[in-house]
Amino acid sequence: MAGPSAAPSPPLLRLSLPALGLLLQLLTILLFATFVCYGRHTSAKLWHQEELRLPNGSSSPPLQNHFDLRYPSFQDVHTMIFVGFGFLMTFLKRYGFGSVAFNFLIAAFAIQWSVLIQGFLHSFHNGKIHVGIESMISADFCAGAVLISFGAVLGKTSPVQLLLMAGFEVTLFGINEYILLNLLGAKDAGGSMTIHTFGAYFGLMVSRMLYRPHLDRSQQREGSTYHSDLFAMIGTLFLWLFWPSFNSAITAHGDDQQRAALNTYFSLAASTLATFATSALLNEGGKLDMVHIQNAALAGGVIVGTSAEMMLTPFGALIAGVLAGLVSTLGFQFLTPLLASRLKIQDTCGVHNLHGMPGVLGALLGALVAVLATPEIYGEGMADVFPLVAAGRRTVAFQGLFQLMGLLVSLGMAVVGGCLVGAILKMRSLGAPLDRQCFEDQIYWEVPEDHHEGLQCLEAVSTQEPDRDATSA
Q1: pTM of this prediction?
Q2: pLDDT, tens digit, for every residue of 116-160?
């Protein structure tokens, strides 16, 4: 229980959070009741009509349900979203509750809203959205993009701001994904463009709009401790282990899915070695930096997202992983401080280094591998990976061009959308913490007694410096 010295919540949060949370849940319930129904692989009636009637009047065994094939991948992706991303953000020494639980909150809302948005765009038939295991995986993918953006503003936003950001971002994510996959015909199995690039640069633009010139007042709480870094490493390991499932979850069954898992597997292994080597090289005395290991080691999963199901080759996946680990580690060492000082982008978790740059590189790699595709390499499998090329409607050169166009669209949607949403989130009524209250659980949570010690230092600082609203920039 919180003691008498507990910090008060920001004004109106006691009313605004319950009001917004219940309103959003009521809205989703009404929309689900109106538009959402079980798909043919989920409905008791429709599934049993799938049986093939034989000429003699007997019926064949039921067709294989997609649930049996997709659910193991869904379990892995689901674990990444709620455990991997959540614990990866617990490196902040006084923001563990907020890292894990706000991750939980916005992901739970995002998957519901995403089912609606993606359903209207992809699976709307006869006035209904048909849901099944594929829509569950797609919703988790969308939640992943939102959580990437969350990493850029971690510790500096209220739960009300985060829920609003999630609602807007899910909508923009669905539109961007529809443009890339349906209108442009781009391939992006593991989401280098739709998930990582979009989520990272959307979050960075929101962070830019919410820039805090006096964030150094919370500098004593922005760092990590031995145990908080250890908890964050748990998230890293969960993400690292399950990333092959993430990149292969929606690919065609068989060789495509196995190839996506293998490419990711090799790339992650290579990015890990490259990260350790680069980290030791950059730091004085050859010591390793835990921030590099927690994040850059995962960049190998991001860079092969677009090309995961393509014929990247095992050695190509290793090269991609090395490049991702190197670029990501260098980004943490040199680019993150520059973003804050020169561009006024305060990237709490370094999403630009783990998701942004590797996502862009992954999109470029996908375009290159698409241009190099030939019938001799793919054979009959060309129809699975590049159906428009196999149908003769597009050359591989044009496929590569459309892959590049997909990257530009994702960047444009992320930058413009992030700026607009960030401007909305600057409203004073949304309960954002003051500059001197950032990265502090006690602002929004009932915390154990041993957590109150840090509040005394916070209050001592506040008596010497005037309060500044988070939106004063």
Answers
A1: 0.92
A2: 999 999 989 889 999 999 999 999 999 999 999 999 999 999 999
| Sign of the C-alpha dihedral computed for residues 295, 350, 335 and 360 taken in this order | positive
Is residue 92 within 8 Å of 150, Cβ to Cβ? no
> 52-66, 114-128, 310-324, 425-439: which has the minimum mean pLDDT?
52-66
Q: Which two tokens stand for residue 422?
A: 């960030």
**Who contacts 408 (Cβ-Cβ below 8 Å, separation ≥6)?**
none
Number of residues that this document lists for the chain: 473
Please report which helix (H) or strand (E) contains residue 235, including its range.
Answer: helix 226-248
Structure tokens at 257: 């899915």
pLDDT tens sequence across 31-57: 999 999 998 888 777 776 655 444 555
One of 1.10.1240.10, 3.40.50.720, 1.10.3430.10, 1.10.357.10 is the CATH number of 13-37+65-462, namely 1.10.3430.10
Here the tokens at position 362 are: 């992954």
What pLDDT was estimated at residue 310? 97
For 45, phi then psi, to 5°, come to -75, -50
Burial of 268 (0-12, 13-18, 19+ CB in 10 A): buried
CA pair distance 200, 145, nearest whole angstrom:
8
Reported as a single tens digit per residue, the pLDDT across 368-405 is: 999 999 999 999 999 999 999 999 999 999 999 999 99
Neighbouring-strand partners of residue 402: none
Residue 55, pLDDT score: 53
Distances (CA, A) of 390 to 156, 189, 397: 49, 18, 13
Name the amino acid, one letter, at 202. Answer: F
- Cβ contacts of 240 within 8 Å, gap of 6 or more: 268, 272, 297, 298, 301
Cα angle: 301, vertex 103, 121; to 5 degrees: 70
pLDDT band at 462 (very low <50, low <70, confident <90, very high): very low
Task: Report helix, strand or coil for 433.
Answer: coil
- For the chain, helix (H) and strand (E) counts, in that order, are 22, 3
Per-residue CA distances from 182 to 121, 177, 187, 247 (Å): 10, 8, 10, 19
Within 13 A of 15's CA, how many CA atoms are on the CB side?
3
